[in-house]
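COURSE: Structural Biology Practicum
ASSIGNMENT: Worksheet 4, Part C
STUDENT ID: 0417
INSTRUCTIONS: Below are two proteins. For each, the amino acid sequence is given first, followed by its structure token string. Answer the questions at the end about the second protein only.

PROTEIN I
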Amino acid sequence: MKKVLIIAGALHIGGAEKVCRDIGLFAKDCFEVHYLVFGDRVGEYEAELLEAGCKVLHADPPASGHKAYFDYLMRLIRKERYDVIHSHTMFNSGWAVLAGKRCGVPVRIAHSHSALEVPMPIYKRCYEKVMRQMILKNATVYAACGIKAGERLFGKKAFESKGELLINGIQTSAFAYDVAARERIRREKGLDGRFVIGHVGHLADVKNQSFLIRLMPKLLLRRPDACLLLLGEGADREMLQSLIDELDLKERVLMTGNVRNVNEYLSAMDVFAFPSLYEGLPLSIVEVQANGLPCIISDRVPKDVFVTDLLKALPLDNADDWIDAICTAQRKNSGEYCALVREAGMDVQGFLEKVYSMYGV
């Protein structure tokens, strides 16, 4: 049985974290899978991974000391004698693939999940440049969830010539439209008779939930029965709650925190709104399409995620267009879309087959 080290960074609820979780959860008897996460926080996915026979290791993050982190990796790899290192930590993957090469690990995968490019101080740009070169020299596989994400980590030329596109997958059948779940969730949350605008994501600047909250006063003039349902948790919760209070929307915006039955909540929604400032390849949008839920998204979301006719992309500079698109959206033939997403190759099984093939099955 081959030993795999997945450097996930975290195992809390999230898109990239779910990808990491799926690899170990479905590996069964093929591999012995260890996870490396940063800090002491126990993520929501840890319990089920431990139950599945995986091992979870906690260590100080690279930012707390790069030399100490590299030395830790060297000791860990020599002790465990891994056959595969699969790092999901963007530019910090440079340390992992270098340590892996020095310790003779044959398969060293750097995996990009983000296309984010923002202004940064010169020392950070220098760090990224050094790490990119370290990755290009020491990784055996350049993997990414989307083309833009691949170009962000490896550079356009390198990803075009050597990159491997690993489109994130979901358990499509779990996200199929469910009438019974719709009725139950709407009853439990007091949403009967409401036009439910849904969103799933970390409560963070990049997900831009404040944009949706600010739409609500004007949107309610068009749809007095509307309410906004926000699933997720994060650092922006207090700010978003203050904005809700300021706009007197306490009865119109519901924040649930993290939930494990996102599939059921999607069935309870009437339209999905996703105004992200940037994305890699958001799994939530794949899930939405499998559910047959119409979705209004930011035009900054990569086109890789467009696998059905349910998506409508809009710029973020015209609130009226968003209001019009949200208010006129409606479900049509929701039960048919699960099969369409599966046929588009977005099922988790296809993703895992590619990953395990890289591992050497």
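PROTEIN II
(use this one for the questions)
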Amino acid sequence: MQHVKLSAGDAVMLGSLDRTAKRHQVTLTWISAESSSATQASCDESDVVRSPMHVRSAATRLKVSSTSGKGLSISDGPTVLLDSRTVPDAISAAGAPFVESTEMGKAEAPNNRQPSPFVRSASADRRRRFTVPLFTAVGVSDRTLLLHEIGHGDHVRVYASARNNSAAKLARAVVERLERRLIRFVETRVGALADADRDGYLTVVLSQLETREPVHTGGEPVRGCVRAADVLAPGDFGGDIIYLSETLPVDEELDAILAHEVTHLAIFSRLCTSAERTQLPGWLNEAVAHYVECQVNPGSRNMATRLATFRRRPADFPVVVPDHHASLSLRRGPSRAAGCLFISSVLLRLPQRAVHDVVAGSGGAVQRLEHVTGRSFGELFRDWGLQMIAAGDNLPRWEVMDRQEFVQLLTGTALSWSDPVRSDGMLTIMSAGDCRLQVTVLSGDGGRPGTLQK
């Protein structure tokens, strides 16, 4: 149990540092100073950080003063912080613009080089067997298919189930976009791609990836996938392969999906040259892939639904979801938005090569992030929450009522925020030990309620 003294205009941010994605109940009771008992309770604030967040505007994008306190970084001046509606801006700010690059961390201006020539393969050209995944209502199954090469460039070959103009159009777009910029863009940020099957090409398979009935994929359609086993143990049917839905439209969304899948391939490729072969935990793997995806296409529809749902219920969706978690919906749904937003916050002020350093590191996800940033996970998590709440009025908040018990539910590494209190008083907070509750008091501006605009 904790007793936290609040002054008029203060607000509270609650977070759970439990990385199991377990659901935790936090019980809060507010007693205003007008009640005599409010001053009698002992006050234990050893785990509470106070942050003087003086918001200067109510716009979506706000400038806030530097934060201070235990575990908080100190900035020299005002910093622009962004919310989940403006995540593409935050992500773009964290990395170099989308340009060609020839060396890790050194970007150069785009040139006028023409795309690699696309060659549409004739019916007599090569065929190859693949074990193609199919996402169904009950899980994922594999089927072995003999597919035809329908086109290629200098570095990419495309195989497909269908051999028609629609498939050829998609194949041409895939080859040109990958070879013109996307492969190089991902390699200069994440790492080099491995030629796992030693054929001299990156292979793309266009096929049906999900059945028509409601599939067991967390409510999101399967647009593409990359499998670690194909890269690390290619065997007869594997290799450096990207599987794409044969129904993908040829528009800006294709760039986002390709960047996402190439990032996964770069992450798995790193294991080919690593002595430890310690795979990146799934949540961080996906967070990095979505981060790169949004750098390439800030308006990615692949993230839009997840971001919207996360914004409505942030306390329900943790950043960290263990790979063994039973809920596929949690692993594939709005928690990916939480992970993407969190990683964009972590990388915001780091050099471009920080993504590569996270991928190339050793140990678990938290150890990698702490090593690259030199800060604890708790500090990174708190700063992320402060950035989101400082950004404006987009997140739901709860209100404390005098002498009324209030229950807040947090799912693992999730956050929630309160409205500013209207008077001085004492807030009593109770939670189980495994919640690893993190409490942050957001100090009001001169005691004026409404500093954090609703």
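ANSWER KEY EXCERPT:
Q1: The domain at 114-273 is CATH 3.30.2010.30 (Zincin-like).
Q2: The first strand starts at residue 2 and ends at 6.
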